[in-house]
Amino acid sequence: MKTYLYILVCFILIGCSSYEDEEINAIKDVINEYLLRNEFAVSRTYKTNTRTTLKKPRVDSIIIPLEKVVLINTNLIKHYKVFISDSLFSLIQRKNNAPWLFANNYKNTKYSDVYQKLITSTNFKTLDNKKIQPYSIILNSPYKLADKYKESTPIRINAISIYCSRICFDSDRNFGVVVLKHSMGINGVNYSGKESALLIMKDGESWTYIDI
């Protein structure tokens, strides 16, 4: 009897460890993919008929008519700093607080059914907040992990904060759901941001997310 209980406990521990390892790997892959697709480290200089304007990515406050814009320069910002929260928040808590985040996502697409099954699953409802070690997440160049508490000067530009939820996987761990939120700036004034409840998919040995 003792042997049976010991084996059972071992299987449970191994299963939990495997889930958490897959979760961290998926978060690493999705964050790197998110940074790559959104080109936060790319600075573009545009010329209009009357002036030259620097347009940072994802800054909605700068609006220039397309017909008057000419791209004259593109620069890659080296060592673009990224702060990753050390806490993964609960999916069900976020859904209860902001149901609109999940409403109609992937509707009328081939991913609609799998997404709906995930966000109504028992696993989705039971995943609690969890602490992680951000430095276990390796970022691809030119992005560099930052520690907002150790920075000697306030970071207001060329920086981004990222917050992630727990990941709800399907039983085969081919798909999952994660809420990812970013805000520009770290310990300065945040001037833009976005939050999405994303479907993620295993692609070979890595994870990618599917745009809504």
What is the element layout, followed by pairings?
Layout: H1 2-38, E1 42-47, E2 52-55, E3 70-76, E4 80-84, E5 87-88, H2 91-97, H3 112-119, H4 122-126, E6 130-131, E7 143-145, E8 159-164, E9 168-169, E10 175-184, E11 193-203, E12 206-210
What does this structure look like?
This protein has 212 residues and is α+β, with helices and mostly antiparallel strands. The chain folds into two domains: 22-39 and 79-210, no CATH class; 42-76, no CATH class. It is 27% helix and 30% strand. The chain has four helices and twelve strands; from the N terminus they run H-E-E-E-E-E-H-H-H-E-E-E-E-E-E-E. It has helices spanning 2-38, 91-97, 112-119, 122-126, and strands spanning 42-47, 52-55, 70-76, 80-84, 87-88, 130-131, 143-145, 159-164, 168-169, 175-184, 193-203, 206-210. The strands form three sheets. Strands 4, 7, 8, 9, 10, 11 and 12 form a seven-stranded mixed sheet that branches. The radius of gyration is 20 Å and the shape is globular. The model is unreliable at 2-15 (pLDDT under 50).
